Amino acid sequence: MSEEKIGFFERLKNGLTKTRNNIVNSIDSVFSGFKTIDDDFYEELEEILVMGDIGIKATDQIITELKKEVKQRHIKEPADCRSILINTIKEQMKVDQDAYAFENKTSVILIVGVNGVGKTTTIGKLASIYKAQGKKVLIAAADTFRAAASEQLEEWADRAGVDIITGKEGSDPASVIFDAVNAAKARKTDVLLCDTAGRLHNKKNLMEELKKIDRIIEREFPDAYKESLVVLDGATGQNALMQAREFKDATNITGIVLTKMDGTAKGGIAVAIQSELQVPVKYIGVGEKINDLQKFDPDDFVDALFDRSQEKE
Question: What's the angle, vertex CA 156, arms to CA 245 and CA 116, rounded to 5?
């Protein structure tokens, strides 16, 4: 494993300390406290998973799979269930091999999410990631309703060394996307990253604006690969899941970016979101620095959660 990957794994492990204390320590106490694998054992595990923000649907699937494995392998000791549980959680979070296909194509990436979740910094970090891959990147600052949004994004664009298309504050976000799409085509851009408004006058207006932006991209740049990422604040737990549902209703969400995973006790929401929405977590952030956003690796995430450091050496 590369030094950079090990470094990120350590930051992820440290960032998940509160989640580990919230979920994993309780799970381990069940494995060590029960003498037999019975209904009470499963009920206790189920309650811990649900209370740990992993969600009812994901928990049901995890417990069902655990029971099946225990029966098939004739396991009698509760402690022997730990590795099975870990692998079952990993299976819940598997990301398809083609999840990052957009990175190898001319792509328009729509970034959605409510204000305050880290949309601006996520766009800056993604721009840096793609620029480092040798891609020509352009940013569209279409969050024209939030004061200073464009200025903040301009700073990130400058830091990443990429161009940016902006509009006047309060102007039509869709017009900025229109200009950016045509600029991207003219400049033979590999990746167009589009910021969007996190809030308009009401939720209906916001969702209608996203649909309008979708139509412009489809009409003006039909040959581009379309990716829509919703940025969620992992620290908000179930609220993040509710936000993801609303954006999924408005646009075709293809991936999730989980930010602010460092220092939250609600890291289990990563499992719940993927299971409930059938939309993969594609990036995870554990800090403010450029390299604190990385592709999501379910094996690394669960190993960091359960502190399996020795297996990463």
Answer: 35
